[in-house]
Amino acid sequence: SIWLQQGDGPFAPDAAEVLRGAAALAARTIVRGLTAPSTEALLVHRLFGARGGGVDAPSLAGALNLPQTGKAAVIGFAANTPGPHDLTDTSSTLRLLAGAFRRDSLVTVIADRAYVLLPGYSTATAVTAWTRQLVREFETGRSVVLRAAIALPVPDLAHVAGARAEVDRVLDGTAGSPESRVTTLAESRTAVLLGEVLD
Question: What is the dihedral of CA 124, 152, 134, 37, to 10 degrees?
Fold first, then answer.
């Protein structure tokens, strides 16, 4: 709600119009504040290479409370149907499930894809099994059909943006391939390279 209090003198004749204009301006300001990304979200975007420029791994590690070195995995998720899709609605569920798998996981949505960073994962088999389970759960429980690409091992935080580029290559190169719902660059190299040659 917006309030206007009268002082010693009466309101000006255009007070109602001014109040309507102020309400519209206030609404835009409030919406902009609610939809603005948090500082942490901006740092995670920077870590994944979405903000341009280089990645200052030591600063990001400190700000996000992550180990700067040590193996990590990057998983990219895309809708399994052609055309742009907004995965923003799935990001909160993805955060919850990733946090249950690894407390220090990070999740972000960039354009029409969602990305998960799993620092210090136990084994590649465990990451793959978790990713397959997550893709199945989204399809059966939420009717969202996803594809996933996994990049691992990522040696340190400075290589997260490169790993994101790798999973993007795989997701681009395996679009429309039902047998590649969860894959890696090594498993899908032929399809990815052939697609890039054709492009």
Answer: 150
Q: Please report where in the chains the tokens 């969602």 appear, as a residue.
A: 114
Q: What is the DSSP string of 61-75?
A: HHHHT--SEEEEEEE
Segment 58-75, tens digit of pLDDT: 888 888 888 888 899 999
Please name the helix (run of DSSP H) or strand (run of DSSP E) that holds residue 110, with its range, or none: strand 106-110
Those residues with Cβ within 8 angstroms of residue 128's Cβ, 6 or more apart along the chain or in another chain: 150, 182
pLDDT bracket for residue 155 (50, 70, 90): very high
User: Kindly report the CA angle at 71 between 94 and 56, in degrees rounded to 5?
Assistant: 85
Compute the radius of gyration of the chain from its Cα atoms.
Answer: 22
Query: What pTM was estimated for this model as a whole?
Result: 0.76
Neighbours of 106 (CB within 10 A): 24
pLDDT digits (tens, 9 = 90+) for 98-152: 999 998 999 999 988 999 999 988 899 999 999 999 999 988 888 888 999 999 9
Q: Which of 54-63, 81-90, 168-177, 181-190 shows the lowest per-residue confidence on average (mean pLDDT)?
A: 81-90
Q: CA-based angle 44:49:50, to the nearest 5?
A: 80
CA atoms within 13 A on the CB side of 106: 26
> 109 near 164, Cβ under 8 Å?
no
